[in-house]
Amino acid sequence: MSLVKKTRERVYEFIRERLLEGRPPTVREVQAAFGFSAVQSAREHLEALVAEGRLGKEPGRARGYRLPTGPRPATLVPLLGRVPAGPLATAVEDPEGYIAVQVKGHTRDLFALRVRGDSMIGAAILEGDIVVVRRQPSADSGDIVVALVGDEATVKRLRLRGGHVELCPENPAFHPMRLRPGEVRILGKVIEVRRHLETPVSR
User: Fold this and answer.
1) Which of 76, 93, 88 is nearest to 22 (CA)?
2) Domain locations in the chain?
3) Which of 12-26, 71-85, 130-144 is the least confident region?
4) 5 counts as catalytic
5) How far is CA 37 from CA 40, 74, 198, in A?
6) What is the pTM of this model?
């Protein structure tokens, strides 16, 4: 194996390890890790790995490298923090890293949040679950959304009734919130729910 191929294999193992840890590196981080004198050397190795199909790349993102899995490559989206699914409470932004997702279409507007509370148990969204959210300013009646009321965020099912917006829980112990359109802002639509069989470590 030539020196170039040996170096490329080491670059691949470095990238793979970082991606599995949820810490996708930038090109400059690859340059620094291997002591390349120019950032172009790191970029050439990465572009070669993409051309070989061993890595995927999300255009326009500094940390857009991913591991291809099956016919639809996985991409990493940021796990931004926690959002209540109970009484309305201030959203906590506490970045935890990245998670890999496989979805159709663009992934630039995706983010993930860890759920706190049990108001959505009827929709199979439990305490500690991770919801993957597509950032969008509106949603259809019946969609599960992340909504902002004042400075407080929540996960609820959206119901559009006449001139009002209802944020509805999926737990009879909680009551719907009936609001005027100007009192609520849709941050995004929940498109996927992830669950760990073991309880995540508290942060």
Assistant:
1) 76
2) 3-66, 75-194
3) 71-85
4) no
5) 9, 31, 44
6) 0.62
Q: What is the C-alpha separation between 129 and 126, in angstroms, rounded?
A: 6
Domain covering 3-66 in this structure, CATH number: 1.10.10.10
Q: What are phi and psi of 180, to 5 degrees?
A: -80, 155
d(CA 1, CA 173): 65
User: Considering 5, 41, 156, 189, which one is annotated as catalytic?
Assistant: 156
Write out pLDDT tens, residues 20-71. Answer: 878 888 899 999 999 999 999 999 999 888 887 788 887 777 788 888 765 5
Distance between CA atoms of residues 103 and 66, nearest Å? 14
Dihedral Cα 14, 19, 24, 28, nearest 10 deg? 10
Annotation marks residue 156 as catalytic: yes
Q: State in Å, rounded, how far the first CA of the chain is from the last one.
A: 45
Confidence category of residue 196, pLDDT binned at 50, 70, 90: low
* Catalytic option among 119, 138, 189, 202: 119
Which of the two residues, 3 and 154, has the higher pLDDT score? 154
The CATH number of 75-194, from 2.10.109.10, 3.30.70.100, 3.20.20.370, 3.30.70.20, is 2.10.109.10
